[in-house]
UniProtKB/TrEMBL annotation:
Protein name: Adenylosuccinate lyase
Membership in a protein family: Belongs to the lyase 1 family. Adenylosuccinate lyase subfamily.
SUPFAM superfamilies: L-aspartase-like
NCBIfam families: purB (TIGR00928)
EC number(s) from the headed UniProt entry: 4.3.2.2
Catalytic activity as recorded in UniProt: (2S)-2-[5-amino-1-(5-phospho-beta-D-ribosyl)imidazole-4-carboxamido]succinate = 5-amino-1-(5-phospho-beta-D-ribosyl)imidazole-4-carboxamide + fumarate; N(6)-(1,2-dicarboxyethyl)-AMP = fumarate + AMP
Keywords from the UniProt entry: Lyase, Purine biosynthesis
UniProt-recorded Gene Ontology molecular function terms: (S)-2-(5-amino-1-(5-phospho-D-ribosyl)imidazole-4-carboxamido) succinate lyase (fumarate-forming) activity; N6-(1,2-dicarboxyethyl)AMP AMP-lyase (fumarate-forming) activity
Cellular component terms (Gene Ontology): cytosol
Ranges of residues in domain Adenylosuccinate lyase C-terminal: 350-421
Source species: Micromonospora yangpuensis
Length: 423
């Protein structure tokens, strides 16, 4: 994980020390189950419970001797357990019973952090959409002025996108929150299935229904795809706000710190760096989708090709996704909006944005569609070429549309507001 894009609560959850604490917890829970089955003496459980989780530094030292992280962890963990009790640690288990069950617990908790951040972003977008529901601005298609809309409408579309992304992420959380304690090749040959049920139940996890020694990696791929899709929704917000900050537009401005400096050479610069950063992080997230999809197809019951990929891809994707969502919520919450510049942009084309209204009026008056279209288009071309007001150009074509006001576009607009307020 890159510390620059990892928030403290995620760093704490995904650190090496946190991983070994979770592994130790799994070992304690497995021993509790074995005690209930009568396979391990209760006195050994007391010793195992008292043992501290080993530090990442100690595990790394032992791994240099053993070239096997799980064996190094077990050796480090058992240093704090009397020998007669230490022999009961990891009874009947294989390495990935420990690793994957701990992964399920950690990934579900990390996903909860993303869901909290996504919910906050949705709430902020909704609140600001309601605030600016009547803030008229120009809608653009293909980058070209189209018809009036409102800034609140823009934000509402983003709120619904984030809500859909959060629902996908919740579904992925349910799939990834599983564990397995089923032994080598997943047949429960040396361990009672009760141990798996007990451990996973205590950790709030489901169980892999047909384990192959490991949890199926399509679960992890689904999680990263959901994170990346949500990241793309954030990028959509960032791209729009970035475009609206261009000098010739300047309808919004992202928040700046007191210490903000936009350029080392040009002191006047006020660059949309937060939006640009959010776009870049979305690219990283999409890159990890391919990597985790590659991990789905393992050789036979398992191989280890997935391990180096997910050591990087899973923590990074979760950390980046969490950072991106949090930064996006901060951006929208503190975004400065310039309604007067938005309204000015509506009139920038001298009335051309009302062409659809004029066309509709002509059709309602019984003018044949092709003729009506050509009449309006001729007036529009005249306005474009000469700068003449569109109403005046229409009069030259023999039609007076009456006053042209943006409110003519919003007759049924509040149906969307009703949907937003029920989100």
């Amino acid at each position: 994980m890159i510390s620059r894009y990892t928030l403290p609560e995620m760093a704490d959850l995904l650190s090496d020390d946190a991983r070994y604490r979770t592994w130790a917890r799994v070992e304690v829970l497995a021993t509790e189950a074995q005690v209930q089955l009568g396979r391990v003496p209760a006195a050994a459980l007391d010793d195992i419970r008292r043992a501290p989780a080993p530090s990442a530094r100690r595990v790394a030292d032992l791994e240099r001797e053993r070239d096997h992280e799980i064996l190094a962890f077990l050796a480090a963990y058992c240093e704090g357990i009397p020998e007669d009790s230490a022999r009961w640690v990891h009874l009947g288990m294989t390495s990935y019973d420990l690793v994957d069950t701990a992964w399920g617990y950690t990934l579900s908790r990390a996903t909860d952090l993303l869901l909290e951040a996504a919910d906050r972003l949705r709430v902020v977008l909704t609140r600001r959409a309601v605030e600016h529901w009547g803030t008229v601005c120009i809608g653009r298609t293909h980058g070209v002025h189209a018809e009036p809309t409102t800034f609140g409408h823009k934000l509402a579309s983003f709120a619904f996108a984030v809500d859909r992304g959060a629902r996908r992420l919740r579904a992925a959380r349910a799939e990834v929150a599983v564990g397995t304690i089923s032994g080598s090749v997943g047949t429960y040959a040396l361990i009672d299935p009760f141990v798996e049920r007990y451990v996973c139940g205590e950790l709030g996890l489901g169980v892999e229904p047909a384990p192959s020694q490991v949890v199926a990696r399509d679960r992890h791929a689904q999680l990263v795809q959901a994170v990346a899709t949500l990241g793309a929704c954030v990028e959509q917000i960032a791209v729009e706000l970035r475009l609206l900050q261009r000098t010739e537009v300047r309808e919004v401005e992202e928040p700046r710190s007191i210490a903000y400096q936009g350029s080392s050479a040009m002191p006047h610069k006020r660059n949309p760096t937060t939006c640009e950063r959010l776009s870049g992080l979305a690219r990283i997230l999409r890159g990890y989708v391919g990597a985790t999809l590659e991990d789905v197809a393992l050789w036979h019951e398992r191989d280890l090709a997935h391990s180096p990929v997910e050591r990087v891809a899973l923590p990074d994707a979760l950390a980046v996704g969490h950072y991106q969502l949090t930064a996006a919520a901060d951006l929208v919450e503190r975004l400065t909006v310039f309604p007067e510049r938005m309204r000015a942009a509506v009139g920038q084309t001298n009335g051309l944005v009302y062409s659809s209204v004029v066309l509709a009026e002509l059709l309602e008056q019984g003018v044949e569609r092709e003729k009506a279209y050509r009449m309006v288009q001729a007036a529009a071309n005249r306005t474009t070429e000469t700068g003449e007001d569109f109403r005046s150009a229409l009069s030259g074509e023999g039609f007076d549309p009456g006053p042209l006001d943006p409110q003519r576009f919003f007759t049924h607009h509040d149906v969307i507001l009703d949907r937003l307020e029920s989100l």
